[in-house]
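User: Some background: our group keeps a shared notebook of sequences we're curious about, and every so often someone picks one and asks for a predicted structure to add to the entry. Today it's my turn. The entry only has the sequence so far, pasted here. Could you supply the structure so I can complete it?
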Amino acid sequence: MAILYQDNQCLLQLRDDLPTILYPGHWGLFGGHLEPGESPEAGLKREILEEISYVIDVATEFRCYADDRAVRYIYHAPLTIGLEELDLQEGADLALASLETIQQGQCYSTKIEQVRPLGDIHQRILLDFFESRLK
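Assistant: Of course. Here's the predicted structure to add to the notebook entry:
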């Protein structure tokens, strides 16, 4: 999963409302599953290219979060282009969110014109990331 940041904000994906995925209808981070034999960094770069047509040159490892649902390898990288240049291929919407928005645990979608919650693990990851940057 990728923490893509720009101007003290992080890029979020509004996940589709599909009952077969984790956190349907919630805001979360972009990223996905690894292919057999694929490294976490290679998988991250592939997923980001597939999901928003963005090329990450250098991804920096942040942390790994594991629970009974998934193992999440988290990387971070700057988002060097505007949102209008991203080509959303997966998910219902995307948005840049400030620390305040992340702390509130919800974000407004301009595409569906609704406030939707952040996935709890995604909120935890982003709060940990902001905390680590303040040290």
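Suggested note for the entry: The chain has one domain: 2-134. The CA atoms of residues 18 and 31 lie 17 Å apart.
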